[in-house]
C-alpha cells in the first residue's frame, strides 16, 4: 500500500478517463461511463453540488477555529486545495463546502458511514483503521511522547508503574498506552480526555502523573500556556511513530487518486514547504503562537517519495 511520485495518481486518473472515452459508443453511454469513472464521491458531489469536510475545532495547528469561528489550519488548507481541484474537475464554480465539526471519537465513524467526504483534522493512518476507511498520502509524521511536570524525570511508560496516566479517547496514543500497560503489567490507571485540551487538563490539575499524546500536539498545547509551559517537559523518548493522513471513504479509488494527485503535486513542486512554514514555523493566524517546529527528516523523505503506507517502519 505504497505509492510514489510521479507515476501513480495523475497516470491513474488519465488512464481511467482514456478508457472511458474509448468505450463510449454514444453521448448517453459516454455520460454514464464518465460518471462511473468518477466513482461514488465525485458522482454524488456533482449531483448535489456539495462536498462535506470534517474539521477539528481546537487541534492547532492542523485544524482549529479562527477569530471568525471559521475552520483553518494546515490540514484544512490541504483539503481546500483538494476542493479547488474538485471544483475545477467537475466544473462547479459554485460548489458548496459544508464543514462538520468532529472529535477523536466521531471522526472515523463519520467517514465510514459516508457523512464526510474528507476528514481534515489529525488522524493517524494505521493498518487496522485502513480495514474500514481509506487514507490519502501521508501529510505529516509525528511521534507520541509523554508530557510530565518538569521536576519529574519520566522517559518511558515503565517509569509510571502504578500511577494515573492520561491520554485522549479514540486515539492511537490511548490504544498504545492500554497495550503496553497490559503487556508489561504496569498497573497504570488510564484516564481518557474527550479531546487533547481535556487530556492535558488532567495533568495540569494533578489528577494524572503524565499525558501521552503526539509530540506536535503537545508542543501546540504548551505554546498556549505562555510562561507556564516551562512547568512541563516532553520526553526525549518517542513511544510510537504516527503518519497522519486525510481520511477518505473506503472503496472509492477514483477520489483517493484525485486527493493524492493534489498532494503529490504540492510535494513535487515544493509548494508544501511554504505551506509547512506558514503553520509550523510562523505565528498562527488569529493565535499569534509560533510552534517553531522545523520539518522532520521523516516528512522530508515523504515529500521526496510520497507514500500512503501505514507501516511505522516506513518512516523511521
Describe the structure.
With 316 residues, this protein is an alpha/beta fold. It is 39% helix and 20% strand. The chain contains ten helices and twelve strands. Strands 7, 8, 9, 10, 11 and 12 form a six-stranded mixed β-sheet that branches. It has a three-stranded parallel β-sheet with strand order 5-1-6. The chain has a three-stranded antiparallel β-sheet with strand order 2-3-4, covered by helices on one side. Helix 1 packs across helix 2, helix 1 crosses helix 8 and helix 3 (74-89) crosses helix 8. The protein starts with 8 loop residues before the first helix and ends in a 12-residue tail after the last helix.
Secondary structure topology:
Layout (H helix, E strand, L loop, with lengths): L8 H15 L3 H22 L1 E6 L2 E2 L3 E3 L5 E2 L1 H16 L6 E6 L5 H6 L5 E2 L14 E16 L14 E5 L3 H12 L5 E5 L2 H9 L5 E5 H9 L8 E3 L5 E9 L4 H17 L1 H10 L16 H8 L12
Parallel strand pairs: 1-5, 1-6, 8-9, 8-10
Antiparallel strand pairs: 2-3, 3-4, 7-10, 7-11, 7-12
Helix pairs in contact: 1-2, 1-8, 3-8
Amino acid at each position: 500500500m505504497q505509492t510514489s511520485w510521479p507515476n501513480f495518481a495523475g497516470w491513474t486518473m488519465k488512464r481511467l478517463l482514456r478508457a472511458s472515452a474509448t468505450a463510449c459508443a454514444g453521448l448517453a453511454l459516454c455520460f454514464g461511463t464518465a460518471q462511473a469513472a468518477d466513482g461514488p464521491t465525485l458522482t454524488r458531489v456533482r449531483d448535489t453540488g456539495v462536498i462535506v469536510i470534517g474539521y477539528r475545532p481546537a487541534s492547532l495547528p492542523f485544524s482549529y477555529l479562527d477569530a471568525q469561528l471559521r475552520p483553518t489550519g494546515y490540514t484544512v488548507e490541504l483539503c481546500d486545495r483538494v476542493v479547488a481541484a474538485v471544483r475545477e474537475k467537475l466544473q462547479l464554480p459554485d460548489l458548496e463546502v459544508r464543514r462538520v465539526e468532529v472529535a477523536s471519537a466521531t471522526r472515523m465513524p463519520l467517514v465510514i458511514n459516508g457523512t464526510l467526504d474528507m476528514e481534515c483534522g489529525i488522524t493517524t493512518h494505521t493498518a487496522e483503521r485502513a480495514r474500514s476507511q481509506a487514507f490519502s498520502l501521508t501529510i505529516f509524521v509525528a511521534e507520541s511522547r509523554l508530557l510530565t511536570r518538569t521536576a519529574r524525570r519520566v522517559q518511558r511508560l515503565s517509569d509510571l508503574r502504578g500511577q494515573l496516566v492520561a491520554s485522549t479517547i479514540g486515539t492511537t496514543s490511548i490504544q498504545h498506552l492500554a497495550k503496553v500497560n497490559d503487556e508489561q503489567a504496569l498497573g497504570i490507571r488510564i484516564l481518557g480526555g474527550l479531546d487533547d485540551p481535556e487530556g492535558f487538563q488532567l495533568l495540569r490539575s494533578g489528577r494524572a502523573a503524565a499525558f501521552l499524546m503526539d509530540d506536535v500536539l503537545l508542543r501546540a498545547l504548551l505554546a498556549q500556556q505562555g510562561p507556564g509551559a516551562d512547568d512541563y517537559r516532553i520526553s526525549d523518548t518517542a513511544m510510537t511513530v504516527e503518519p497522519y493522513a486525510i481520511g477518505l471513504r473506503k472503496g472509492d479509488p477514483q477520489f483517493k487518486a484525485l486527493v493524492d494527485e493534489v498532494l503529490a503535486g504540492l510535494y513535487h513542486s515544493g509548494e508544501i514547504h511554504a505551506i509547512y512554514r506558514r503553520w509550523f514555523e510562523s505565528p498562527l493566524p488569529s493565535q499569534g503562537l509560533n510552534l517553531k517546529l522545523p520539518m522532520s527528516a521523516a516528512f522530508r523523505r515523504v515529500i521526496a517519495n510520497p507514500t500512503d503506507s501505514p507501516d511505522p517502519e516506513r518512516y523511521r
